[in-house]
Design goal:
The protein has about 675 residues and is an all-beta fold.
Length: about 675
């Protein structure tokens, strides 16, 4: 919860200064040439229900642009929009980043990526599959009203095999080892190493006003897994740790916003540990229990004056029991989460992402020292009922409560229906209610309103799926989301109220030609979205900043001779909207100095040019012996060097501007030795 209190706090000031488709096919060919199911399914999964996307690690790593990181493939799913700035914010069908949740099979992950989007925190070798639920998800997932990213871990097999990987900016190693006949382990670690190759002090970027570093941005993460497998029980110990740090100095805004200059020292990270028990005796009953603890820390000193020091300790228990009979599959479970969070903050009242006119020099500052605890309780019941051999219905309730401030009990009903015309054609529908905490910063009494209540959304989703000869498949998914009780500001000085609302509607279309008996595959996707939200009380709904109306992606791969593989990704989307500067005025600060301040036009009335990128990748596996191999991968991102504009930079008096572009042509190379 609290990780959003200072959401991208350091990165925000840093900015001041500076598809994949739904399915690749449900089967693939293994080493023995036999066909088998490609995806691991949860207890409550129903194929072809709306808005559920799956991809295996193997499939993801074949994609251009993921740079050896399968979790990055999330950003290419139809319906997932990703901002191209350093925050890497992922927006799902009109939902903000903080309205999504990430987990490792229900083990919470406070962050999914280093520095917002540079690299994921879960090692590829510890990742089996990524599931993404863009809407209409079932009652086993809760307290999030946007989407769900759920990673299936790859458990060790006791092979006593390892790997060493080296990429452009990071390296990693790991070992899968056997302890005894029933117990296996995996240990792996990864570290960026640019900071080892550059001087201890240097310049960042090409700005005329230097941005310098005394600690180059660096990250590391580690994964440990231990498993015990018996006849009817599976136990696992899972631990993931990650850390990001940097120290930079900027003077770039010394005229435009004098307070936004100086040194930024930032460290953040977490350690999440879980103990899992899966029980599956002979018969129709299964159970899954997870006990976990997570410690998240955030320590930033910003511009010599401001600070944000947060430690969040979260302990939890998750359980689900499932009874599977001929006509019914009943799941009953619950979750308890205890949060212990001390805060030590000296910060301004942070702006919304929609606010372009934040000025640190004139912003009010607040000193906050608070220690609070929260008990969260949730229970759910759900049934998947087979009505006929063509019709299934999934219905359930999620009920949750807590003892924090004014939040009361919420009941979220959720229903889904699927009808299969035959084995190749189906249609489905789902509707559900979803609730979550407001941004916790808005709940702190000094700078917010402690009487805020849950924010709510309602999802309406449809799916039509048809499979053709050789497993070609098309999926058409329209959706509508309604947001209510959003916490929005009243004015610049007063607190927040739950008077905001929003809506988003659109369409995702996906066509896949999987890699089966031929040497090539193809994925095409198209997404359309319209979204708007309330940004301030009394002003009505306005265009949502994350809206990019049209997105088209085409990805294909081809198997060449001698274990070479070629793949490409073409991505196009409408340009992002922004609020333009239309004038300027002279402002006098409290110390008597004057400077120019911008005058803005209508909210999000400007639009950047459309985005386009072509990524190419070629890879090869060279077998050195029966148990040793070298894997090479070479990629070129944005091979046409298309100038994708995602920002505007103004001079000190706002009389000149220059456009800022995202990633230029960028080569990437990595190699992995497996032994």
């Amino acid at each position: 919860m609290i990780k959003y209190i200072i959401s991208n706090f350091v990165l925000m000031f840093f900015f001041i200064n500076f598809s994949y488709a739904e399915d690749i096919g449900v089967i693939f060919v293994n080493e023995e040439g036999k066909k088998k199911d490609a995806y691991i399914q949860t207890e409550t999964f129903i194929e072809n229900m709306p808005m559920q996307k799956q991809i295996t690690t193997k499939e993801a790593l074949d994609m251009p642009g993921v740079q050896g990181d399968p979790i990055k493939a999330i950003k290419t799913f139809a319906g997932v929009l990703s901002t191209s700035d350093m925050s890497g914010e992922m927006l799902i069908h009109g939902s903000k980043e903080r309205e999504n949740s990430a987990s490792l099979n229900h083990l919470p992950l406070p962050d999914l990526f280093h520095f917002g989007g540079l690299h994921s925190i879960v090692a590829p070798e510890a990742t089996e599959q990524i599931d993404v639920y863009l809407g209409g998800f079932d009652a086993t997932y809760g307290q999030t009203m946007g989407g769900v990213f759920d990673i299936t871990p790859k458990y060790p097999e006791g092979t006593n095999k390892g790997f060493v990987h080296m990429g452009i900016y990071d390296s990693s190693l790991g070992l899968d080892f056997k302890i005894n006949n029933r117990t296996n382990g995996f240990i792996g670690g990864r570290r960026s190493y640019f900071d080892l190759l550059v001087d201890k002090t240097g310049k960042l970027g090409d700005s005329e006003d230097e941005i310098t570093y005394t600690k180059f941005p660096r990250f590391y993460d580690g994964t440990l897994m231990l498993t015990l497998d018996s006849s009817d029980s599976f136990f696992s110990f899972e631990s993931i740790t990650a850390r990001d740090s940097l120290i930079i100095n900027t003077q770039e805004n010394k005229v435009k916003d004098p307070a936004a200059t100086g040194t930024i020292s930032h460290t953040s990270g977490f350690t999440t540990t879980g103990l899992r028990w899966k029980y599956k005796p002979s018969g129709d009953f299964t159970a899954h229990t997870l006990i976990y603890h997570s410690k998240y820390y955030y320590d930033s000193q910003i511009f010599d004056e401001y600070k944000a020091k947060i430690t969040e300790n979260v302990s939890g228990l998750y359980h689900i029991s499932t009874w599977d009979t001929d006509k019914n599959k009943i799941s009953l479970g619950g979750e308890y989460i205890y949060e212990d969070i001390p805060l030590d903050l000296y910060i301004p009242k942070l702006p919304e992402r929609e606010d372009p006119d934040f000025d640190l020099t004139t912003a009010k500052k607040y000193s906050i020292n608070k220690h609070f605890t929260v008990n969260n309780y949730a229970t759910f019941i759900q049934n998947i009922q087979t009505i006929t051999n063509k019709t299934k219905i999934r219905y359930g309730l999620r009920v949750f409560d807590n003892d924090y401030e004014s939040y009361d009990t919420r009941v979220n009903p959720r229903v889904g229906l699927i009808y299969s015309f035959n084995k190749d054609i189906s249609t489905s529908f789902s509707v559900g209610e979803y609730s979550q905490f407001a941004d916790p910063l808005k709940n702190i009494e000094q700078i917010g309103n402690k009487d805020l209540v849950y924010e709510d959304s309602r999802h309406y989703t449809l799916n039509y799926s048809q499979t053709f000869t050789n497993k070609h498949k098309i999926s058409i998914e329209p959706y509508f989301k309604k947001f209510e009780n959003l916490a929005v500001s009243v004015d610049d000085d007063r607190n927040y109220l739950n008077t905001g609302e929003g809506e988003a509607y659109g369409l995702d279309v996906t066509y896949t030609k999987p890699l089966l008996d031929t040497k090539w595959n193809l994925i095409f996707s198209y997404s359309y979205i319209q979204a708007k939200r309330t940004t301030k009380d009394g002003e009505g709904m306005k265009k949502f900043y994350g809206e990019m109306p049209h997105t088209i992606q085409v990805m294909g791969s081809y198997l060449l001779k001698n274990d070479w593989k070629f793949s490409s990704l073409i991505k196009y989307h409408s340009g992002a909207y922004y609020t333009p500067v239309i004038g300027r005025y002279q402002y006098t600060d409290s110390d008597g100095t004057t400077r120019w301040r911008p005058t803005y036009g209508s909210d999000l009335s400007g639009q950047f040019p459309d985005y386009f990128t072509l990524n190419l990748k070629i890879s090869k596996t060279k077998y050195l012996s029966y148990d040793r191999s070298l894997e090479f991968s070479f990629e070129i991102m944005n091979i046409t060097n298309h100038s994708n504009i995602d920002g505007i930079r103004y001079n000190d008096d706002y009389t000149e501007k220059e456009y800022e572009s995202s990633m230029p042509l960028l080569p990437w190379f990595d190699v992995t030795y497996r032994f």
